[in-house]
């Protein structure tokens, strides 16, 4: 067995990969929220469409995006495997851990992760699949001074988020995301050994603030769009 196989099949190896991919996904969420906040500028989508055009065509961003899809899958698969391993271990006599004092989030990380994954399948099916494989599904637009047209993703996003069923699915997804991050953020630092009694309080505070503010930001965008004329 090569060291790579040994690493990925050991519980510690899996946890380290979960932590690193989790931190990458946390960074992605911040960029994604920043991009989507452009929807609220009230400029008819000029800034949002320019931002999406840049993100969709820049070669460096494209490579990072493929890394992102791979990390989402890796994080999900390893998470399920760790959850199954923990569940099997609980049946054994020598298992002494107790989860009585654990938070709702830490006890339900796997189910929360699966809910987020289900949200992602719906979300990426709605936008990403159309952008990648259904050329022409969105209109194009050419702003003053431009030599070529770009995709009018803004109009597509507004049309999608104006559907009440999508709003409900999104809000449930953001809620699951908030709980998952509540535990996941600080847990990633702990797994990587980046914890010190001096900084633990700060890491916990940053993690909890992130877990509230980022999903809340996404929720406010969705609610703003459905209420918008
Ligand atoms: C108001 C909330 C949100 C809006 C309006 C939104 C909008 C979009 C749009 C329009 C795309 C397609 C852009 C593209 O592929 O170039 C996209 C892609 C994506 N979204 Fe979201 N999103 C939201 C929340 C979220 C959340 C909470 C997550 C994660 C839990 C997420 C994860 C993703 C991923 C992984 C992609 C594919 C990334 C890429 O290819 O660039 N989104 N989103």
List the topology elements.
Elements: H1 3-9, H2 11-36, H3 46-57, H4 59-90, H5 104-107, H6 109-126, H7 128-133, E1 140-141, E2 150-151, H8 153-161, H9 164-191, H10 200-227
Antiparallel strand pairs: 1-2
Helix pairs in contact: 1-2, 2-4, 2-9, 2-10, 4-6, 6-9, 9-10
The chain binds protoporphyrin IX containing FE.
What does this structure look like?
This protein has 229 residues and is mainly alpha-helical. It has one domain: Up-down Bundle (3 helical TM bundles of succinate and fumarate reductases), CATH 1.20.1300.10. It has ten helices and two strands. Strands 1-2 form a two-stranded antiparallel sheet. Helix 1 (3-9) crosses helix 2. Protoporphyrin IX containing FE (HEM) binds next to helix 2, helix 3, helix 6, helix 7 and helix 8.
User: How does the helix and strand content classify structurally?
Assistant: mainly alpha
H/E series: HHHHHHHEEHHH
Can you give the mean pLDDT?
A: 92
Q: Looking at this structure, what is the CATH superfamily?
A: Fumarate reductase/succinate dehydrogenase, transmembrane subunit
CA radius of gyration is 20 Å
* Strand order, sheet with most strands: 1-2
Number of strands: 2
How many separate structural domains? 1
**CATH class (first level) name:** Mainly Alpha
Heteromolecules bound: protoporphyrin IX containing FE
Level-2 CATH architecture:
Up-down Bundle
